[in-house]
Known about the structure:
This protein is 33% helix and 19% strand.
Amino acid sequence: MTSEKKGVSxxxxxxxIQSNPKVLKHTQPKKTSHTDNRSRIWTFxxxxxxxKKEWQDDLVTNQWICxxxxxxxxxxxxxxxxxxxxxxxxxxxxKSFSQVSELTKKIGGTIPQPVANSIGMxxxxxxxxxxxxxxxxxxxxxxxxxxxxxxxxxxxxxxxTMCEIEDYIDSKKIxxxxxxxxxxxxxxxxxxxxxxxxxxxxxxFSKYVSSYRYSSKTDISKLIKNIDK
Length: 229
């Protein structure tokens, strides 16, 4: 299913929150009027044919990261998506939706959304955790005031870490993603990179642990108790 409105492009493969198909997985769901709905980190989409010519000049006082041009994305039916950029915008203090939307409107951007997971969002700019999608080159990232390596990490380090986690899943026959996350929190002193790796590769590890769902389950309570000893 694909839905494209001005400012919003959503597909079944996009990192979505199922309960609200308009909200990206790495963004925050809308909050009630009784909560603080401001955020320091926002994201929006920019289309070349509607973007202000010198749009980067309007963001010079802020920190931001722009994805490579997504010009090879396809819809589930095989049709080509409209070329676009994803932009990650960081402010020194919290900004309201109206404040940020005023800025994105000025440069021809789409409706902004607050970001809940910065690492996951920047990795999505390259589709690193979505092997079914076109993989974009890190060299295409443009940043202003931010170090992209802070969010991406080293590919080799991540590969080795993922293999370690997969071996652990195999040996313990962990069958649920939440169990894996709970264990990684308790192993943070021994394996400090595990929790970050697991929570930024949600799709991969969710599918991996589900392969054990119909085999004998691990006694997760006993496992955690042994770790805590």
